[in-house]
Specification:
Distance between the termini: 25 Å
Strand order of the largest sheet: 1-2-3
Helix content: 40-55%
Shape: globular
Largest sheet: 3 strands, antiparallel
Structural class: mainly alpha
Length: 284
């Protein structure tokens, strides 16, 4: 059972809005690179070449998020997950907690149907459109739950879930992290935040949390210290988490991400040991 919930996303989330959190990386020039700026002892510049999207690091990211979202490292077992957890967002389902009331489940089923028109979920698109923005099950119910589980047994629906996870959450988080000069841990911290809080610029979204952090510290891309900036980001995130009862337990920050950060493990090297909600986990 999922222990966390995301605030409601903008109804009918578009690709443009999902990617609004990304700052494009400037194109490379063929000219000789300029000399790097002088570094300040008080604020060393660290532009990491680490990439959370590398296969090994991405697998670690999926397991870390699953430990908080599903109380399990087996994230691939969650394709078929579907449940109404009573959070006002309707059904929560799949590997990233797509919700029938927040737009991302609707976008997922649309994309899946575009790729596989004759699928078990296609006939529920009208109902998903009607319940979007609410916690209603009208036109869904147990038959929809069964159809979700049936679809989840196919490679095509699993690929659709992977694709929507990457398009809406993972890729924007990694790209923004790289633009801010963050290493693998920082990119993961962004990803975990966007999973829980959703993309956007409202005060309780990923963009809003980042804006709050930027008021307190500079990221490495602006000459700031990476650890100092990430602590400011996590502090800002905890403020938002505590505003909603479902997020009030901040252990995924306190006994997971801050543990790695305080250990100086900015590239998420294994072995990793952490706790979420008091449960211990380890990746070797």
């Amino acid at each position: 059972m999922r222990k966390t919930m995301r605030p409601v996303l903008v109804t009918g989330l578009s690709v443009a809005s999902a990617l609004a959190v990304v700052i494009a990386t400037p194109a490379l020039s063929s000219a000789a690179p300029a000399a790097p700026p002088a570094l300040s002892a008080a604020a060393p510049l660290r532009i990491s070449d680490g990439d959370l999207s590398s296969p090994e690091k991405k697998e670690i990211a999926m397991e870390l998020v699953s430990s908080a979202e599903n109380s399990s490292l087996d994230w691939k077992a969650q394709y078929s997950y579907i449940e109404d957890i009573g959070d006002g967002r309707g059904y929560t389902a799949g590997i990233i907690g797509f919700c029938s009331g927040t737009g991302d489940m609707l976008e997922l089923v649309r994309a899946y149907t575009d790729a596989v028109p004759d699928n078990p979920l296609a006939k529920y698109l009208p109902a998903l459109e009607k319940v979007n923005g609410s916690d209603s099950h009208d036109g869904l119910g147990s038959a929809f739950e069964s159809a979700w589980k049936e679809a989840a047994g196919t490679a095509e629906f699993q690929a659709a879930q992977d694709s929507e996870r990457d398009r809406v959450y993972f890729d924007p988080a990694v790209n923004q992290g790289k633009s801010d000069g963050l290493g693998v841990l920082g990119q993961f911290i962004y990803y975990d935040a966007i999973v829980m809080h959703g993309p956007g610029d409202s005060s309780d979204s990923f963009g809003g949390i980042r804006n709050s952090a930027l008021q307190q510290a500079k990221p490495p891309s602006q000459g700031g210290d990476e650890t100092t900036y990430l602590k400011a980001f996590l502090d800002a995130r905890k403020v938002v988490m505590k505003q909603e009862e479902a997020h009030a337990d901040t252990s995924r920050v306190d006994t997971e991400q801050l543990v790695f950060l305080n250990d100086g493990n900015l590239d998420l090297h294994t072995p990793l040991k952490w706790q979420v909600y008091g449960d211990p986990y380890e990746i070797n």
